[in-house]
Amino acid sequence: MSTRVSSNLTLVLKIFLPTLWIAFFGLLTLAIFFSSGEENLLFGDWTFKLGILGFFLVFLLFIYKTIMRLLRIEFAENAFSASNYFETHQYKYEDIEEIREYNLLFKTLVQIKMKGLTKYGRSLYFLKSKAWFNGFVESHPQIFDSLIKK
């Protein structure tokens, strides 16, 4: 039986935030970019239009480089699985080089550094669900004692 150790917030950040950003702010950017400026003088200024377009693209790049790297992680007795919500891959605990935790303002980001390359790169990132992660780690100290670095 496997235990999900990543936070439910991962789904919201990875699926809903990019969708809403592209749909709503993307359409607003297009509307501002293609407006004539007769209704509102600010919308006719090319500096403002390019600034809004730049802001949209920079935040889109931020989403791609940070939030889209988050994975859903499930721990089991002999292996763990990593999912990007579209495909799931299983890896052995022996393939983990180290596990690091980084405290953010409201959550803890966990990096699983692998010994070799995986489908998702050499490092797997997820937002930790404290109760599920800590519960699994405490009940399986033989697996995690040498791996977790704080």
Break the fold down into its secondary structure elements and pairings:
Blueprint: E1 3-4, H1 9-33, H2 41-44, H3 46-65, E2 72-75, E3 79-83, E4 88-92, E5 96-103, E6 108-118, E7 121-127, H4 130-139, H5 141-144, E8 148-149
Parallel strand pairs: 5-8
Antiparallel strand pairs: 1-2, 2-3, 3-4, 5-6, 6-7
Textual characterization of the structure:
With 150 residues, the chain is of the alpha+beta class. The protein folds into 2 domains: 8-67; 70-149, PH-domain like. Helix content is 42%, strand content 29%. It contains 5 helices and 8 strands; from the N terminus they run E-H-H-H-E-E-E-E-E-E-H-H-E. The chain has a 4-stranded antiparallel beta sheet with strand order 1-2-3-4, covered by helices on one side. The chain has a 4-stranded mixed beta sheet with strand order 7-6-5-8, with no helix packed on it. Strand 3 (79-83) and strand 4 (88-92) form a beta hairpin.
Number of domains: 2
State the order of secondary-structure elements, H for helix, E for strand. EHHHEEEEEEHHE
CATH class of the largest domain: Mainly Beta
What strand line-up does the widest sheet have?
A: 1-2-3-4
Low-confidence stretches: none
> Roughly what percent helix?
40-55%
- On the 0 to 100 scale, the average pLDDT is 91
Which second-level CATH architecture of the largest domain applies?
Roll
First and last CA, distance: 27 Å
For the largest beta-sheet, the strand count, sense and barrel status come to:
4 strands, antiparallel
Q: What is the approximate shape?
A: elongated
Strand content: 25-35%
Q: What's the number of helices?
A: 5
CATH topology value of the largest domain: PH-domain like
- Strand elements, count: 8
* Class derived from helix and strand content: alpha+beta
The quaternary state of the protein chains shown equals: single chain
Rg result: 20 Å
